Amino acid sequence: MWFASPDEVRGRLASVDYLADDGIATSVFLAGALGKPLLAEGPAGVGKTQLAKAVAQATGARLIRLQCYEGLDEARALYEWNYKKQLLRIQADGDAWEDIFSEEFLLERPLLRAIRSDEPTVLLIDETDKADVEVEGLLLEILSDFQVTIPELGTITAIRRPYVVLTSNATRELSEALKRRCLYLHLGYPSPERERDIVLAQVPELPGLLAERLARTVATLRGLELKKSPSIAETVDWARTLLALGRTDLDEGVMAATLGVVLKHDSDQSRAAKELGLPRP
Amino acid sequence: MSEPLLDRHVAFVGALREAGLPVSLAEGLDAARALTVIDLAERETLREAYAATLVKRPQHRPGFDALFDLWFPPVISDGPPEPAPGHAERPVLPNETAELRDRLADLLMGDPDDPAFRAFARSMVGRFGRVPAAGNRQSWFSYPVLRALSPQTLIARLLDAMLAERGGVPETLARTQISRNIRKFEEAVVADVRRRIAEESGIEKIARTSVPLPIDRVDFLRLTRDELARLRREVHPLARRLATRLTARRKLGRRGRLDVRRTVRASLSTGGVPLTPHLRPRRPHRPELVILCDASGSVAAFSHFTLLLTFALREQFTKVRAFAFVDTVDEITAHFRPGVDVLDAVTRMTEEADIVRFGRTDYGHVFTRFAERYADAIGPRTSLLILGDARSNYQAPALDALRRLAGEARHAHWLNPEPRPQWDSGDSLASAYAGIVPMYECRNVAQLATFVEDLAQVY
Questions:
Q1: CA nearest neighbour of B291 among B311, B274, B275, B265
Q2: Range of the domain at B449
């Protein structure tokens, strides 16, 4: 068992500075209780990857991370035979044909490592949407049965089921089959109240009033029709920036000067300046 | 799992399916399994447990929430509802409304997730929401509640209470906060009205009519202002998604023709035997796009959205030129330069472009005029895309002009935001034009996305 109840999830995640709301706490709890992978989807910078890290940290489990990218294949994700070593062995001993497909020559990749791990493990499959569609097929077997078939060695079944978190930015729709096997958690932008608490958890030196002001400003910015809404990570960056500048208040001048921390498009900056009535630098 | 809970679970899953959520058998079982490990007394945990196991797309979440509130209501009204004694309702005292508005003002300044906030909304529905209906029956409405309390008129007062002085950024921030909380209050009222109706006349009846459609299925012609704003915010994510899919398709597509020179060159190392054929990489064909869009009021939301989307997808096309018309036509490409704020672009386009003569849509004149003025825009590499409802106010259709335009372009397509059964009714010339340019029904974002994907990929 990973967690006993959603409330316990909330408490333990809070102890590692991750503030969970009802949705996060319940799905993190269920993923552990039902032994199903958790798919966290949402815009960039809302704490999807951080969630997996926080779960690992809060439970003292080992974190194994598989970063997805275009062109990721079985050899990088699952396992590979160390063929150089195999060649050397055959050259050294002509009768070695029998034992070159053994443990010694197997290169573990993240997925296999997570399945064979005998300690509690959190497997983070990051940015699943960046990988090609074939990789999803590979994941299906692993995520539903937690087993891997290696032709030369046989089927390897997980000793302990790892806690699996998949993240996606939704740049493409993941397949129905994959979604069906996962619990789904949509991570969106938080309410200003929650965002204020997150900022204070991340930057404890920030005055509470300023954090409140910051969270409200960012909520207003997200209400505008921008190309790219500011993420939580960017709000936290903004808080750090203000702290580094030694500012204790967020007035128009400071806001206009530091808007670049949260808005990275020129048109977004001018739109925000216009809507909020800021002086253009 | 107990019998009544199981029944409710099965009925709820059935209702989700009926509302268009694709809930598979396996997902239903997952949800049932989840119910056995959570504390059922915690309503929000129950809601999130269902959401995690059954709702796999964010667009489906609002519909799910509405149904959940009906199937697992937060409170149950006590006792049988007292019959409404005609108009002899308890009279509203003037002081009472003022007091209630004070209370509402306090709540609107606080955190809307506070349980007191929803409890207040519920008690207000109980107080004002009942309306006597025909045959000694009664019904519930949200309108009288919002009229009695009129939260919108509290804004000025709230601003005064929250700010030392008006103006500037603080006021903008306070306004955002207040209007968000007012919206939450209105939603809470509507949810409670639905709950009460469901209690009295059965859940199934109301469930069918009150569940909001996912945003990408909402009809372009029936968008409310809020929905339009939400849609516009979807433009860039949608464009990103489409772009990823399009590039992925292109990479997967067939490799190009044999590259003889490189194959022969490579065969030298194998003694002149061409072991590995080298293929020429395929040139990505990116169509030039000319968009001709109806900017008249009736279809403006549709045209604007489609324009925004195509411009957000600019990398997928070599060149995009856009023209807008009501009863005459003007080029608007310049308004959509890269880096320009899209909202400004749309506003400026409507103000500055010369597209109106008399103000009544006239497709015939537009096609003639376009052929005269912008004939050079269309060439053998161009795809012509016409956006509009083909309703021409009984003017001459100018089919020949359109035929010439379509003939010169490589491809031509017409997107019509009206449902197909309404084509040809009244002043619609849909079939006449569809005989020249293939016309597609494009009523919502989902249909539009499918079309754009086909358009950029086929050639």
A1: B311
A2: 226-253+285-458
> In terms of DSSP bridges, do strands B382-387 and B288-294 run parallel, antiparallel, or are they unpaired?
parallel
Say whether both B231 and B352 belong to one domain. yes
Domain-embedded: residue B326: yes
Q: What is the ipTM of this complex?
A: 0.91
Q: Residues 26-65, chain A: which have Cβ within 8 Å of B?
A: 26-27, 29-30, 33-34, 36, 38-39, 41, 43
Mean pLDDT of B441-451: 85
Number of structural domains chain A divides into:
2
Q: Is the confidence at residue A231, as pLDDT, over 50?
A: yes
Of A134, A153, A186, at which residue does a domain stop?
A186
Cβ distance B122 to B75 under 8 Å? yes
Q: Same structural domain for residues A208 and A128?
A: no
Residue A184 and residue B34: Cβ atoms within 8 Å?
no
Question: Does A238 share its domain with A175?
Answer: no
Instruction: Choose from B37, B43, B59, B177 for mutation: most chain A CBs within 10 A.
Output: B37
Query: Which residues from B are below 8 Å from A219, CB to CB?
Result: 176-177, 180
pLDDT recorded at residue A265: 87
Q: How confident is the model at residue A204 (pLDDT cuts 50, 70, 90)?
A: very high
- CB neighbours of residue B117 within 10 Å: 19
Helices (H) and strands (E) counted in chain B, each on its own, are 18, 8
